[in-house]
User: Which sequence fits this backbone?
């Protein structure tokens, strides 16, 4: 197996603003974890430097008028007419270099696409990717250029089938909207219920339309959902769906905001749950792309991505051996003996409600979607 990490220290030159929750320092912290624990030194691992994506390729996912406004915003000077495109909002501020940053992050995902689709590497991870809220003509949810839609379209244009799994706590509305009628992209999203969290979409009855009916699978999670509930839904639904769909490639968003340390969400996962699904997906996809997406506790996000990287690249034991005698207590010490969280679970009425809701959603998917796609 061969692996790639797409990352550039140039990302640290950009900033959404001092008080904005989307902190690009998490990518740098993640990279430091890998470097400190010798997780980039294996000869089967390639460190890939991204380049800004060619401007014409952005048209695959965005309207030219939107891109013109985004390019104008690169100076950092806000103009009122930008608001019609979502630029200059609290979530998507105009800042110096915003267009260059967007092209670089999309370029990183494009590099991942090239290496995976050409079957040069089995798995490539871009921590500064997964901007799943951006629409064709609108920036939202901290997202300016939808790199997911861009690379998914490029894969589909080559006649392949794509399975898209999204573990970010916020529903990937920009991706759902783009492929809602497409039977060649299987969309599966685990996210906090839209009744409680932005963007307020992603209910289980949103199952696609036209040719895409049955290929859009939403698994809304109630607050207090923990590893046990999350993994119940995963094992009950994802393997049968993937077995029936038989994708050629996978795109997976490993958002770290479902974790119980995240300040913006209300889920209670530990990173052990994400590690378990990452390990399983690595056996199901021969060629796949991982994207960072959300995560607003900088330390927890960087540590979770480091865990996922070590698990997928079969280096977790090596990471632990690299820091003999180390103890991780949740601080910022890079030489942690383990990237794993301590297991913790919800309890009481909140847990009962979340569990009951998950079982209801699972039954709905099995009843309404499984027959449509041939899942068993």
Assistant:
């Amino acid at each position: 197996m061969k692996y790639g990490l797409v990352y550039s220290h140039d990302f640290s030159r950009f900033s959404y603003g001092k008080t904005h929750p989307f902190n690009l320092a998490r990518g740098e912290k993640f990279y430091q974890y890998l470097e400190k624990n010798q997780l980039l030194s294996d000869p089967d691992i390639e460190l890939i430097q991204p380049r800004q994506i060619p401007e014409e390729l952005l048209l695959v996912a965005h309207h030219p008028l939107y891109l013109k406004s985004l390019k104008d915003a690169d100076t950092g000077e806000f103009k009122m007419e930008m608001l019609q495109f979502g630029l200059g909002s609290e979530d998507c501020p105009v800042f110096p270099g915003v267009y260059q940053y967007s092209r670089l992050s999309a370029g990183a995902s494009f590099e991942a696409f090239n290496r995976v689709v050409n079957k040069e590497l089995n798995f490539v991870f871009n921590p500064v990717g997964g901007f799943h809220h951006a629409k064709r003509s609108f920036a939202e949810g901290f997202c300016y250029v939808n790199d997911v839609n861009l690379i998914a379209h490029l894969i589909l244009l080559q006649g392949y089938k794509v399975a898209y799994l999204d573990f970010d706590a916020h529903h990937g509305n920009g991706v759902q909207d783009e492929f809602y009628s497409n039977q060649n992209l299987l969309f599966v999203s685990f996210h906090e219920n839209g009744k409680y969290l932005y963007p307020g979409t992603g209910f289980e009855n949103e199952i696609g339309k036209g040719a895409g009916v049955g290929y859009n699978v939403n698994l809304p999670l109630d607050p207090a959902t923990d590893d046990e509930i999350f993994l119940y839904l995963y094992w009950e639904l994802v393997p049968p769906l993937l077995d029936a769909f038989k994708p050629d490639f996978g795109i997976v968003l490993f958002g770290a905001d479902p974790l119980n340390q995240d300040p913006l969400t209300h889920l209670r996962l530990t990173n052990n749950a994400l590690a378990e699904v990452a390990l399983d997906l690595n056996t199901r996809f021969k060629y796949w792309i991982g994207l960072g997406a959300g995560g607003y506790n900088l330390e927890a996000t960087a540590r979770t991505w480091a865990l996922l990287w070590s698990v997928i690249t079969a280096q977790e034991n090596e990471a632990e051996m690299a820091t003999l005698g180390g103890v991780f207590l949740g601080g910022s010490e890079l030489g942690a003996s383990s990237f794993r969280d301590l297991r913790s679970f919800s309890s009481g009425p909140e847990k009962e409600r979340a569990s009951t809701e998950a079982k209801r959603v699972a039954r709905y998917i099995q009843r309404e979607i499984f027959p449509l796609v041939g899942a068993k």
